[in-house]
Automatic annotation (TrEMBL):
It comes from the Bacteria. One of its GO terms (molecular function) is translation initiation factor activity. This is Translation initiation factor. It comes from Corallococcus exercitus. Residues 55-121 form the SUI1 domain. Residues 1-10 have a biased composition (Basic and acidic residues). Signal peptide: none annotated. The keyword Metal-binding does not apply. Keywords: Initiation factor, Protein biosynthesis, Translation regulation.
Length: 128
């Protein structure tokens, strides 16, 4: 009525046909293979190129009293601004939008944002 336990069954007696059994006796006669390749990642990794500087500031005016963090002076094209915004929003766990040449992130992110910007290749981050 129930399923039989497979582990209680003993394996069937008798030898099985192993196609590689004859090769185990000739193992010492086989030639030595090529040496393993050298690791490719031994060269130092260049720093990611990014904008020379970024200005980070907090703003409340004109936003109904809500705090936002504005990242300005990145000097990136519009397509790259969208890519940067998506990465920063994911890293900070907040919302945001591109306004003209600035990234606007929801909330006060001035303490957490410089580390993310430097990781993306910004050489100088000015927090104001």
């Amino acid at each position: 009525m129930g399923k039989r336990d497979k582990k209680d069954e003993a394996p069937p007696p008798g030898p099985f046909n192993n196609p590689f059994a004859a090769l185990s006796a000739q193992r010492e006669a086989l030639p030595v293979g090529p040496p393993p390749p050298a690791p490719q990642g031994s060269a130092p990794k260049p720093e990611p190129k990014g904008p020379a500087r970024a200005v980070v500031r907090m703003e409340r005016k004109g936003r109904g009293g809500k705090e936002v963090t504005v990242v300005e002076q990145l000097g990136l094209p519009a397509a790259q601004l969208d890519t940067w915004l998506k990465a920063l929003k994911g890293g900070l766990g907040c919302g945001g939008v591109v306004e003209e040449d600035a990234l606007v992130l929801q909330g006060d992110q001035r303490e957490r944002l410089p580390a993310l910007l430097e990781a993306r290749g910004v050489r100088k981050v000015i927090v104001g």
